[in-house]
Specification:
Layout: H1 15-24, E1 34-36, E2 43-45, E3 47-50, H2 58-72, E4 78-80, H3 89-103, E5 112-117, H4 130-139, E6 149-150, E7 154-155, H5 158-172, E8 177-183, H6 189-192, H7 194-213, E9 217-223, H8 240-251, E10 259-265, H9 272-275, E11 277-280, E12 286-288, H10 289-295, E13 299-303, H11 310-313, H12 317-322, H13 329-338, E14 343-349, H14 356-363, H15 370-380
Parallel strand pairs: 3-4, 3-14, 4-5, 5-8, 8-9, 9-10, 10-13, 13-14
Antiparallel strand pairs: 1-2, 6-7, 11-12
Helix pairs in contact: 2-3, 3-5, 5-7, 7-8, 13-14
Domain NADP-dependent oxidoreductase: 47-231
Keywords: Oxidoreductase
Pfam family, one: Aldo_ket_red
């Protein structure tokens, strides 16, 4: 459903609403569970609900809606979804969960919704011929050209990203998404080269700056898988300063850009964003992606916290030894990422309400002190 097809819930997260939200849980959640989103004074929970995983069926839709509703009523005010997730069903389930939470008294100004676009939305399921689908649903409708397509699944055109943004607003029922991320633009680099990819990304950022002006989003950013973890000489590497430069051009001279978020994988088995010094920080030195993001005033959101479920099933010895007070491998894996200096929000994808108990148990804990975290991290290395 497109955003124009129904009445959308107005508003977005703000400082007053989010502070009131924090006050609701002052007696039940850890003191440092919330932190400021950059200089906006919007309070974000240290944990967020991801909605990528799950079967494409009604049972999962109901489960995701229940997870979102319960999380919002339990001190988790960050929800992450994508226009393509579960062929568009995830966004609608998020919308149902939000509606349920708001009916129970949660206000729109209290929570923060992250949306994504880039990967094709195969409504109803993956087609037998993705290229034919692309020609019929994207090219024929003026939303992109074949040169904008990568791996038959990803479209980097301003028109298609704008369409996905509107589609996701309709799916979730929200007039304004708090942030919208371009998902894995690096997949185009092997096909067209980094310079051409940046040219396309500039056009997309320009459309997203316009979306800010139209109150469709408040901020934007990118979500990556490889770009911020690989070495600088790797084909897929992207520098944060280059992305900032594109955002400045997109905003136009004299205007402040709205690029604010980088989402990237991070867990005990994928620590490169913290350990690999590959980014110019903006202060004349080289640091990790997480360090550079902090200095460049970008918020880091961590994905793949449980390594697609592996870290919920298998113990990491250093985590088991370093966080013995938590009940199981999943809780330890979440707490490890959540305690990483410089990570603003730790996202955990869930499609079963049974997983929410571990998630909420971690929210009640203080993040690990830096010294304790680093000692455990040294053992892991």
């Amino acid at each position: 459903m497109n955003a124009a097809d129904k009445t959308l819930i107005p508003g977005a997260a703000n400082s007053v609403g989010s502070k009131a939200y924090v006050a609701r849980f002052a007696e039940t959640l850890a003191e440092e569970h919330f932190s400021d989103f950059l200089n906006t004074r919007i309070k974000l929970s240290s944990l967020g609900v991801g909605t990528f995983p799950g079967a494409v069926d009604d049972v999962t839709d109901l489960a995701v809606a229940a997870i979102v509703a319960q999380a919002l009523q339990s001190g988790i005010n960050v929800i992450d979804t994508g226009a393509n997730y579960r062929f568009g069903r995830a966004g609608r389930a998020v919308g149902a969960g939000i509606a349920k939470a708001m009916a129970a008294g949660i206000l729109r100004e209290e929570f923060f919704v992250v949306g994504k676009g880039g990967f094709l939305t195969f409504t109803g399921g993956r087609p037998e011929d993705p290229l034919a689908f692309f020609r019929e649903e994207v090219v024929a409708k003026g939303l992109g050209k074949e040169e904008d397509l990568a791996q038959n699944v990803h479209c980097l055109s301003p028109e298609y990203i704008a369409w996905q943004l509107d589609d996701l607003r309709g799916q979730t029922g929200l007039e304004t998404l708090d942030v919208f991320l371009v998902d894995q633009p690096e997949v185009h680099i092997p096909l067209i080269g980094k310079e051409r990819m940046y040219q396309k990304l500039l056009q997309v950022f320009t459309v997203l700056e316009q979306a800010v002006n139209e109150n469709k989003i408040r901020y934007y950013g990118i979500s990556t898988f490889n770009a911020c973890r690989v070495e600088t000489d790797h084909t897929l590497f992207q520098s944060l300063t280059s992305l900032i430069g594109l955002a400045e051009k997109a905003a136009g001279e004299g205007n402040r850009h709205h690029l604010r978020v980088v989402e990237l994988p991070f867990n005990a088995l994928m620590p490169e964003a913290y350990t690999r010094f590959s980014q110019v920080t903006g202060q004349g030195n080289i640091g990790s992606t997480i360090q550079a993001a902090f200095q460049l005033k970008l918020t880091v959101m961590a994905s793949h916290t449980l390594g697609k479920g592996l870290l919920a099933r298998e113990e990491i010895p250093s985590l088991q030894e370093g966080i013995p007070e938590l009940a199981n491998a999943a809780q330890r894996a979440i707490q490890f990422v959540r305690s990483t200096p410089g990570i603003g929000v730790t996202l955990v994808g869930m499609s079963s309400p049974l997983h929410l108990a571990d998630f909420l148990a971690v929210a009640k804990q203080l993040p690990l002190p830096k010294e304790r975290y680093l000692a455990m991290f040294e053992k892991e290395k």
